[in-house]
């Protein structure tokens, strides 16, 4: 883990500096489990997987048509062949085939020894039974899918660290693989801090609000396939927070809190981390999300996120998700950033990197444009809910005029 240095304590770190510091030292957690194919979806592969046989396992037809010998083509522009049999998917032709002969063949059916070319049905005529006329002659070897052209015996086809997609399940199935070894699930404990917070189901008193951060965190963590330990709301009380820290660190690979990291009187998260663990930094030059306590608590990684609901989501995507993906053993962890043209003026002061809530759209011609999703305040979920991306405006940049290109992080790209 990167060491805290006292002189850094008063500096604001840039977003990318923080991302690099967080992810560079993280090792994937130890431990794995065997799971069957259906339970492997979205899990992280903990072993290289090798093909034990060629796939496709035999030459087979890519078309419905007729199979014949390319040596029969010669200089001819039309070819009349004698039909001697058929090869259907799962029902191969077992006889011999001589020069001047063809067999009827279906897509996926084995191309038998002796023939090497398939003509598609649409390029043939069958004026009488037992004869096929090829009216458009294909190139030699056309429409034959060769044995092993997807996977060769001994080839590593899925590498350790790969997040298994629906395609990968199919890929494993083509090799008849029923079980794979995946990294064990990460366990993350999280709680909210604040005397003003009530859980759903409780009645709100004067000045109280419902705890919503535990729900965004629930969703964000669930998307990553993480085992959750929801520890509820902890009051702004030094001892209660210390106890919660100790419990969380004893059960989880990572601990996430929200609230209580500002410099207010009742903000005990940072000082508790300093006391019970190690704080690496806490000031980031970004908006929303400036105060964020990052460090270690026993063997757990610790993230003290700000309290404002939008700040929680923004800092999660930028820092927590990359860290957790690394712990899961994934290689590519930072959010995907693309370029789009802003169709509106975007207000910003130079100073901090902004993660504005935006709506990314594609015009009929395919051009990507982005616009403001609404009020850009860190307590306002309306714009966050409407948004489908962050518009990332660099720290030094001021406002941006309509028509300029901006960096955009689509939420879809952030989730995977
Ligand atoms: P704090 O970081 O504790 O100073 O909180 C900053 C702002 O976020 C305050 O307006 C809090 O009321 C609000 N807040 C903190 N935690 C939550 C939460 N779990 N759900 C909703 N709002 C919160
Ligand atoms: Mg608070």
Describe this structure in words.
The protein is of the alpha/beta class and 416 residues long. The protein has 4 domains: 12-31 and 185-328, MoaB/Mog-like domain (Molybdenum Cofactor Biosythetic Enzyme, Chain A, 3-Layer(aba) Sandwich), CATH 3.40.980; 33-55 and 149-183, Molybdopterin biosynthesis moea protein, domain 2; 60-145, Molybdopterin biosynthesis moeA protein, domain 3 (Beta Complex), CATH 2.170.190.11; 338-410, Beta Barrel (Beta-clip). The protein contains 8 helices and 26 strands. A hairpin with a 5-residue loop joins strand 8 and strand 9. 39% of the residues are buried. Mean pLDDT is 94; it is low at 1-9. Bound molecules: adenosine monophosphate and magnesium ion. The site of adenosine monophosphate (AMP) has 19 residues, from loops.
How is the secondary structure organized here?
Elements: H1 15-24, E1 32-36, E2 49-50, E3 60-61, E4 65-68, E5 79-87, E6 101-105, E7 117-120, E8 124-125, E9 131-134, E10 144-145, E11 156-158, H2 166-174, E12 179-183, E13 187-193, E14 197-198, E15 209-210, H3 213-223, E16 227-234, H4 238-251, E17 254-258, H5 269-276, E18 278-283, E19 286-287, E20 291-297, E21 300-305, H6 309-328, E22 338-342, E23 353-362, E24 368-372, H7 381-386, E25 389-393, E26 405-410, H8 411-415
Parallel strand pairs: 5-6, 13-16, 13-17, 14-15, 17-21, 19-23, 22-24
Antiparallel strand pairs: 1-12, 2-11, 3-10, 4-6, 4-7, 5-9, 8-9, 18-20, 20-21, 22-26, 23-24, 23-25, 25-26
The structure holds adenosine monophosphate and magnesium ion (MG).
């Amino acid at each position: 883990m990167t060491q805290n240095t006292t002189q850094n304590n008063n500096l604001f770190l840039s977003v990318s500096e923080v991302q690099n510091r967080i992810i560079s030292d993280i090792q994937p957690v130890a431990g794995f489990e065997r799971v069957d194919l259906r339970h492997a979806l979205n899990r992280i592969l903990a072993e290289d997987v090798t093909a034990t046989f060629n796939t496709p396992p035999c030459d087979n037809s890519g078309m419905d048509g007729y199979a014949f010998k390319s040596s029969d083509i010669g200089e001819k522009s039309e070819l009349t062949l004698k039909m001697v049999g058929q090869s259907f998917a799962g029902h191969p032709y077992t006889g011999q085939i001589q020069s001047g002969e063809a067999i009827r063949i279906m897509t996926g059916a084995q191309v038998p020894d002796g023939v090497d070319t398939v003509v598609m049905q649409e390029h043939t005529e069958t004026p009488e039974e037992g004869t096929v006329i090829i009216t458009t002659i294909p190139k030699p070897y056309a429409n034959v899918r060769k044995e092993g052209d997807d996977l060769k015996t001994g080839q590593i086809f899925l590498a350790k660290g790969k997040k298994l997609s629906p395609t990968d399940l199919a890929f494993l199935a083509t090799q008849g693989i029923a079980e794979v070894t995946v990294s064990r699930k990460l366990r993350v404990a999280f709680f909210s801090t604040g005397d003003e917070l009530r859980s759903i189901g409780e009645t709100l008193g004067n000045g109280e609000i419902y705890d919503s951060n535990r729900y965004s965190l629930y969703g964000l963590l669930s998307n990553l396939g993480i085992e959750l330990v929801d520890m509820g709301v902890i009051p702004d009380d030094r001892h209660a927070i210390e106890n919660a820290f100790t419990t969380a660190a004893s059960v989880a690979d990572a601990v996430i809190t929200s609230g209580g990291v500002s410099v207010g009187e009742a903000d005990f998260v940072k000082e508790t981390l300093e006391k019970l663990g190690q704080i690496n930094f806490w000031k980031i030059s970004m908006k929303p999300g400036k105060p964020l306590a990052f460090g270690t608590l026993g063997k757990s990684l610790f993230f003290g996120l700000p309290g404002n609901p939008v700040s929680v989501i923004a800092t999660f995507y930028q820092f927590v998700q990359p860290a957790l993906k690394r712990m899961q053993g994934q290689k590519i962890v930072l959010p995907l950033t693309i370029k789009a043209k802003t169709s509106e003026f975007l207000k910003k002061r130079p100073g901090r990197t902004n993660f504005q809530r935006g709506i990314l759209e594609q015009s009929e011609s395919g051009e990507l444009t982005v616009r403001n999703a609404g009020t850009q305040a860190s307590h306002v979920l309306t714009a966050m809910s409407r948004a489908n991306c962050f518009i990332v405006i660099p720290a030094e940049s001021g406002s941006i005029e309509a028509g300029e290109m901006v960096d955009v992080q689509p939420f879809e790209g952030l989730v995977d």
